[in-house]
Specification:
alpha/beta; Transcription Regulator spoIIAA; 3 helices; 5 strands
Length: 112
């Protein structure tokens, strides 16, 4: 059997209105440490940290735990984590785990 690739890509934009992270691929146990490290390495900012999940195909329980950890860390540093544009599968995961009650989820227009 061939090896399964768990691709995760992220594009970070730091601006005056916050930090935008556009994520594509899967967030699962195979790459969650990389995902968390990327978000934790971002500079603290009072403006929002927006994570665009529109390109995420799968979000595992490990990914959910990472988002909650990033939320707590961001809030402790005076910022706010906002999850943006999750597809229906990812949105269902966020609702089933009640993350939507803790972390704001928004639909935003894609940046050019």
């Amino acid at each position: 059997m061939g090896e399964v690739q768990h691709q995760l890509r992220a594009e970070v934009t730091v601006g005056t209105r916050g930090i935008d992270v556009r994520v594509t691929g899967e967030i699962d146990i195979a790459n969650v440490d990389e995902f968390r490290a990327l978000l934790w390495a971002l500079p603290p900012a009072p403006a929002p940290l927006r994570v665009d999940l529109g390109g995420v195909d799968f979000l595992s329980a490990a990914g959910v735990r990472a988002l909650v950890a990033v939320h707590l860390r961001t809030r402790a540093r005076g910022g706010q984590l906002v999850l943006c544009n999750p597809n229906p599968v990812v949105r269902r995961t966020l609702r089933a785990t009640r993350v939507n009650r803790v972390i704001p989820i928004r639909r935003i227009a894609p940046t050019p």
